[in-house]
Amino acid sequence: MSESITLFSKIINGDIPCFEISKGDNWLSFLDINPRRTGHTLVVPYEPVSHLAELSSQQLSDLWEGVIETQKLLSKFFNTSDFLVGVHDGTLAGQEIPHVHIHIIPRTKGDGGRSLLACWPKAPAIGSVEPDFSALAKIQKEIQDANT
Fold this sequence. Notes:
Elements: H1 7-12, E1 20-23, E2 27-31, E3 41-45, H2 57-78, E4 83-87, E5 102-106, H3 133-146
Antiparallel strand pairs: 1-2, 2-3, 3-5, 4-5
């Protein structure tokens, strides 16, 4: 387990202020200072690790409970039950702070937000091409073989 001090560790420790939404025994949620839209909230575990797989089972379970608790609070304010929930699991996935964090963005009709597919605008639209089942079977086998 990493013992690094991250920006989020400093927020958790109270060294840097935040706009807290909620907290539990092992997690904290607070408004993102660079929101994609109003209400964009981060849920962070107390363990300062960069990948979900590095979290203890208890921390991982508590983190997802924090996501649900935070969604309930945001749901009442934004009058929605729909959220974009995103995780950048490591730097190659776009994680800017090396500390697991889950983005929760309330979604409402006409909010201007798009789907995850907007991250890859050159990819073909869903349903616009036939699935390449042989390529999928090949990569599935390669993944399985790499793990045996």
